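Can't paste images in this forum, so I'm doing it all in text. The chain is below; anyone willing to post the predicted structure tokens underneath?
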Amino acid sequence: MPTLQDPLMIVTDLDGSLLDHHTYSWEPAQPWLERLNEEGIPVVICSSKTAAEILPLQRLLGIISSPYIAENGAVVHWEEFNGSVDRAANKGYTEICQTLQKLRDRLGFKFIGFADVTEKEVAEWTGLTPHNAALAKMREGSESLIWRDSAARFDDFSEALAAEELTLVQGGRFWSVMNRGAGKGAALDLLLRHYTHPVGHKWLTIGLGDGPNDGPMLDKVDYAVIIKGYSKTPVTLQREGRDVEERVFHSTHFGPEGWSEGLSHFITQG
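Text version of the structure:
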């Protein structure tokens, strides 16, 4: 099992994981956050939230210097890098929204995205304050939407997006439309290839998440914590090997309590 003396990196989802699904509180995780900070262990947020939302949260959580992954993997940031997994080929937010409007006009799909509504409506959907809802609308590489059409039409929508080099990722509350090939797993893969440990060690990673969009990220880490969640779609991993059961832990608690439970399960405190 990992120890606090190992070259650890913690990679975590926010909503429903480090943050309570209903209240957005992280209080049960505070003792672990303080211990990780004392040991200089980076806590990498890997979330559907925007960079504008993540930056103030980093300050509140005390993890200012850590990298982060925003918008379900559409945006990756560390001190030497800020952008997308493949910046040259990607559509930006404005172009994604223009493509969505084109498909809606041409094919009559029924959906509503953050670009279509006010901050007040986003606040009502999410339970965020109006200020934080405004931050959630400050998107760079993906659009969050609610599907309001049939299941059959959803398959047509997915095909139409694929023709435009776009893809759908299911989150806890919304579907994210982003560039094909993007996602939490691809973003973390980029980070691990280029973000080096201070003294050159290979990172030993523990990932924590509660939703289906966390699966690709949890497949990339050494140890995975699947936090008990509210999604009807389970977290599905593609991991293989004889030690899978030893490296994957399912929490019995929701949110930050499950988050702390997972770290306590894997990390030997010495």
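DSSP finds ten helices and twelve strands in the chain. The first strand starts at residue 8 and ends at 12.
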